Amino acid sequence: MNTTAKVIIEVKDLWKTFQTGGTTFSALRGINLSVHAGELLAIMGASGSGKSTFMNILGCLDRPTTGQYLFNGVDTTPKNNTELALVRRDHFGFVFQSYNLLPRTTAFENVELPLLYFGFKYGISARKEMVMAALKQVGLEEKALNKTNELSGGQQQRVAIARAIINNPKIIFADEPTGNLDTRTSFDIMAIVQGLNQKGATVVLVTHENDIADFASRKVIFSDGKVISDSPNVHCKNAEEERAKLPELLEPTAAK
Fold first, then answer.
1. What's the total number of domains in the chain?
2. What does DSSP assign to residue 73?
3. Which of 84, 98, 108, 210 is the most buried (most CB within 10 A)?
4. Could you give the strand order of the β-sheet that contains 226-232, starting from the edge strand earlier in sequence?
5. In this structure, what CATH number is given to the domain that contains residue 193?
6. Residue 157 domain flag
7. Residue 213: inside a domain
8. C-alpha dist (Å) from residue 59 to 43, 86, 151, 182
9. Per-residue pLDDT, 252
10. Cα separation of 203 and 193, whole Å?
């Protein structure tokens, strides 16, 4: 963790409480945490530990019950829904386990979607240039006109990453981005994520997989709504190098 870098996210005594019937349940219990610009942070924990709830609050997709969430030094807590939507649009990119791509549309159209929320800010030619540049970053420019159902799971996740980076966001939130993928494809995706991080993007990654968290520069572990461990990953692995160590898959022998 580079403690000399600017603090881009800071949460103070963050609580998230739900009412279920007559029972009160606290998914988050007094979280205090800072994220520095340029980090690749992995948030880990068992199912129900609060990690996804925490991610949703950091991404301004949900609100805390009490406590403060400061983004770039500005308290987001009093912002209304429209103001939070603008924070998401202008500063964040999201990648999800289930890809969240629009069905029956092309890779190009999915990546272009965030630009349409800016109204007339970007013309057709500017949008095309930006979309193709984003697809090129994830190695899918030749699949721009393919529909999502024509793409593999790994390719769909690459499209989702291209969509997430189209606006050059300050922070990429990735919630179990390799959860539906095999090991080889997962390492491919993490190589892209590490590449984006090396170019300056701050990445907050939720994962339950130790081998994926090993690619992060810092690991934070949640349990029962609390942070029980927060430490730099001094043995951070390189995803491209780890992928190269995997045995090559054998092509099936043609039936005689």
1. 1
2. T
3. 108
4. 92-96, 171-175, 202-206, 40-44, 218-223, 226-232
5. 3.40.50.300
6. yes
7. yes
8. 14, 11, 27, 27
9. 47
10. 8
The pLDDT value given to residue 19: 87
| Site of tokens 């603008």 | 86
**Cα–Cα dist 138/163, whole Å:** 10
Q: What is the pTM of this model?
A: 0.90
Instruction: Determine the Cα–Cα distance for residues 251 and 228; give it in Å rounded to an integer.
Output: 45
Q: Which amino acid, residue 115?
A: L
| Token code pair at residue 128 | 């095309």
Q: What is the pLDDT of residue 88?
A: 93
95, 155 contact by CB (below 8 A) = no
Amino acid at position 118, single letter: F
**What confidence score (pLDDT) does residue 121 get?**
81
Per-residue model confidence (pLDDT) at position 253: 46
Residue 18 located in a structural domain: no
Query: Residue 173's pLDDT is what?
Result: 97
Structural domain contains residue 161: yes
Residue 180, amino acid: N
- Domain hosting 112: range is 39-61+89-244
Q: Which residues of the chain have pLDDT under 50?
A: 250-256
Residues 6+ apart with CB under 8 A from 220: 33, 41, 42, 43, 44, 227, 229, 230
* Alpha helical stretches, state H, 42-179: 51-58, 81-91, 107-116, 124-137, 153-165
| pLDDT tens digits along 178-226 | 988 999 999 999 999 999 999 999 999 999 999 999 999 999 999 999 9
Q: Which amino acid is at 31?
A: I
